[in-house]
Design brief:
This protein is of the alpha+beta class and 295 residues long. It is built from seven helices and 14 strands.
Length: 295
């Protein structure tokens, strides 16, 4: 239940690098680490050829407001920064959501094999796919600490999968994990500024966070109850672009809000008909309609 009042405060005392994992370590060892730490980090798990089409399509949809800089090899802001749900963001985001490459990335064999390491051989990929546009000079508007179990109304077998579309360093804002934070269940939440509008409670002893610079093709998988957040993008011009979705073992309950395009609840024209209108293939259209455990 959402508590009324200021967001919960938390103290960040120590940062340590993300613990690296390799798909070849074996299911048993990786699942044990996932249950201990609440996440798995796979550096360069995806080849450039897998993620480049998504990056290029996103940049095309965001042009002329965000463009690729060949010198820095990063997206760059052209004009004033904007925040998720700003008028400009609302105008651009349906174009991003309609990208077939964005949705298809999470159904490719390389990504599904990573999902299977924690969910088993029969995986259900949520239809809601998210694209993140972290613009510079919007301090205070980054995603606060939260648990997906609350925001997605999900059980403990759901997990998130996040993919880096390009290299990103500390200044650009990074996905930050509170290791072991999944073991205590779903936490109380408070109203907060930033993406999602809520922050979960952080306990006084929780001062160690895991975070690393990321490279193109890096993948992070995290438990539905693992507390995570985005650091602020404090760069002057560079933009961080990434994509993520949620998945579970087939047959686990999935709440109905996860069946709509991301932000369809607040952008009237953003529905599946809009998303699918220019797709070349048919196989992923409405693939989720016969899922047996919707509520």
């Amino acid at each position: 239940m959402l508590a009324v009042g200021a967001a919960a405060r938390f103290v960040e005392a120590v940062y340590q690098p993300l613990i690296c994992s390799e798909p070849t370590e074996g299911d048993k060892e990786l699942r044990a680490r996932f249950q201990t730490e609440g996440y798995l980090y796979f550096p360069k798990a995806l080849a450039s050829s897998a993620v480049t089409p998504v990056l290029e399509d996103m940049l095309s949809a965001l042009d002329p407001h965000i463009r690729w800089n060949k010198m820095t090899e990063t997206p760059m802001l052209a004009g004033e920064p904007f925040f998720e749900s700003d008028p400009l963001w609302d105008a651009l985001y349906p174009k991003v959501q309609a990208l077939e490459s964005l949705h298809r990335l999470f159904h490719c064999s390389e990504v599904r094999q990573l999902m299977e390491l924690v969910a088993g051989p029969d995986v259900f990929v949520y239809p809601m796919k998210m694209a993140r546009i972290a613009a510079p000079r919007k301090l205070g508007y980054e995603t606060p600490p939260h648990q997906d179990a609350f925001s997605h109304h999900a059980g403990p077998t759901m997990a998130g999968i996040w993919i880096a579309l390009h290299d990103a360093d500390k200044a650009m804002g990074r996905l930050t994990i509170l290791p072991g934070s999944h073991v205590g269940g779903v936490r109380p939440v408070f109203e907060a500024q930033g993406v999602g509008g809520v922050q979960c409670e952080i306990y006084p002893q929780e001062t160690l966070w895991h975070v690393s610079n990321v490279s193109k093709g890096d993948v992070i998988i995290f438990h539905s109850q693992t507390v995570h957040r985005a650091q602020p993008n404090i760069d002057k011009e560079r933009v961080r672009l990434s994509v993520d979705t949620r998945f579970c073992d087939y047959g686990a309950p999935v709440f109905s809000t996860n069946l709509e395009p991301h932000h369809a609840w607040r952008i009237p024209e953003l529905d599946w008909e809009y998303v699918y209108q220019d797709w070349d293939a048919q196989d992923l259209r409405y693939y989720w309609r016969n899922y047996p455990a919707l509520f």
